[in-house]
Amino acid sequence: MSSILDLVRPEIRRMKPYRSAQFADGLVRLNANESPWRPPGDQSRAGFNRYPEPRPSALTAGMAAHYGVTPAQLLVTRGSSEAIDVVIRGFCRAGRDGIVICPPTFGMYETYAQIQDAPIRRIALLRERGFALDVAGILDQWSDATRVLFLCSPNNPTGNSIPVAQIHQLAAALAGRAAVVVDAAYAEFSATDPTQELLGQHANIIVLRTLSKAMSLAGVRCGALLAAPELVALLGCVLPPYTFPAPCAEAVERCLEPGNAAEWRRRVERLRSERSRLAAALERLPDIRRVWPSDANFLLVEAVDAPRLVEAARRGGVLLRDFSWDPDLPDCVRITVGDTDENDQLLGALARP
User: Fold this and answer.
1) Whole-prediction pTM
2) What is the rounded CA–CA span in Å between residue 102 and residue 38?
3) Burial of 353 (0-12, 13-18, 19+ CB in 10 A)
């Protein structure tokens, strides 16, 4: 474990976590400079006038149970995007320590690295092999100044999963040299979820999860960073206290109640079924050259004319994501899988002359 902790920025390792006001149920809180009165219309459990817990313990326990890890292995973040920021700030000294990304992939890795002034090395996915990961290229071009490798699986926006054997290979090869971050935001829509397997075998693995997709909580902004307890404790120093709002925590806790589990599974299966139906229908349209296989809740398509396809969908009342500006994704458009009516509306719009 010490090897991965040694890669965390030395100033972070030396930090002492901020000591916020301590709270205890049943005691009057005159130690946090809060208002004693609730605001008008406040129906929340704890009261909007009160600060939430510095770290939401009940929510942490519920999410840990949901992902099959211990509470000490989980740091609650505001979406998995904040977890990306935490990792880069935790490992990368500005202007010195860099990251590796594998484009085309989620753009926020690059954005947060630029904010931290962390150098970025890009090892492109192999488009001719279905956007496969270039494992040999990553290892051959590795630099001692690199601290973090970001792997998105299933990958956004291409939709394909990285074989877990390749993630094991990279984590083993980079042990003591880098943190390997597996962004599993779309794992629920894939056939397999290697989260527990990866965390159980590699101390340098960090897995990012989110409740925005399969759990229908995009508006709540709840994610998680999963890693070894010692690493979670260190990276938690990067976050200030009170980061996760109490009403959001209450909403997540309600969604994670055991009685809702069957409904979440049904919704995922429905989206998988609609994904297959939508892909087959899109492949029959003359304006689409190719539909890439997907393990996520979206499809990447190669269009004859991407802007024209996007505009046709807009005229039919549907918004799509045009990626044709990206040199790694010429003529490509990303289509989120909706419900049956939404997908039919899209297909109808694209079928119009």
Assistant:
1) 0.96
2) 48
3) exposed
Q: Bridge partners of 302?
A: 290, 332
For residues 124 and 105, give the distance between their C-alpha atoms in angstroms, rounded to a whole number: 9
Which pair of structure tokens corresponds to residue 44?
């929340």
Angle at 202 between CA 197 and CA 207, to 5 degrees: 65
**Rounded alpha-carbon distances, angstroms, from residue 22 to 32, 37, 52, 231:** 8, 19, 11, 24
Distance CA 272, CA 295 (A): 8
Neighbours of 32 (CB within 10 A): 12
Mention every residue, 6+ apart, whose C-beta is less than 8 A from residue 278. Answer: 299, 335, 337, 343, 346, 347
- The per-residue pLDDT for range 177-200, each reduced to its tens digit, is 999 999 999 999 999 999 999 999
Per residue in 169-182, pLDDT tens? 999 999 999 999 99
Q: Give 274-318 pLDDT, tens digit per residue.
A: 999 999 999 999 999 999 999 999 999 999 999 999 999 999 999
Q: Residue 113 is encoded by which pair of tokens?
A: 């690295």
The alpha carbon dihedral of 214, 215, 218, 223 has a sign of negative
Query: Is the Cβ–Cβ distance between 250 and 56 less than 8 Å?
Result: no
The predicted structure's pLDDT at residue 195: 96
What are the beta bridge partners of residue 290? Answer: 302
Instruction: Compute how many other C-beta atoms are within 10 angstroms of the C-beta atom of residue 8.
Output: 22
What is the torsional sign of CA 211, 212, 213, 214?
positive
Q: Give which of 219, 267, 230, 257 is closest to 66, Cα–Cα.
A: 257
Taking phi first (over 0 means left), then psi (-120 to 50 degrees means alpha), and beta for anything else, what does residue 33 get?
left
Residue 2 above 80 pLDDT?
Answer: no
What is the amino acid identity at position 28? V
